[in-house]
Amino acid sequence: MDRKRSTAAAGQAWQIYSETLQPDAPGFFERVRAVPRMLKSVLRGRYKGMSFGTLGLLALGLVYIISPIDAIPDVIPIAGIADDTGLALWLAAVLVKSAGDFVTWERGGRPTVIVGEPID
């Protein structure tokens, strides 16, 4: 991972961490506990704050981390682990940020979605 990317990743992680410390923002552990509820709401179509495309990318990223097949093999000392670590940090950052948005959405009251034709 080059310096610009690592600096950008560190900056994004710091921004998300700082966001969890705001007075009205959900805390880090509240966000972590909200991830399963958020995923369930996205899959059921209740929460529109995360698209199915983003959810698919998260799933593919998790499969890549778990899979023994890597773009950069782990036997290469630093680079082999850096790609998995970078991807894991990206996954964590997206989940924490999205979970914060989800908790804020939950606190604001969930709007009900009525499927059907609008009536004048």
Automatic annotation (TrEMBL):
Q: What is this protein called?
A: DUF1232 domain-containing protein
Q: Matching Pfam families, A to Z?
A: DUF1232
Q: Does the keyword Iron-sulfur belong to this entry?
A: no
Q: List all membrane-crossing ranges.
A: 47-67
The primary site where this protein sits is membrane
Which residues does the UniProt record annotate as the domain DUF1232?
A: 55-90
Q: How does it sit in the membrane?
A: Multi-pass membrane protein
Q: Tell me where in or outside the cell this protein is found.
A: Endomembrane system
Keyword list (alphabetical) reads: Membrane, Transmembrane, Transmembrane helix
Q: Which organism is it from?
A: Actinomadura napierensis
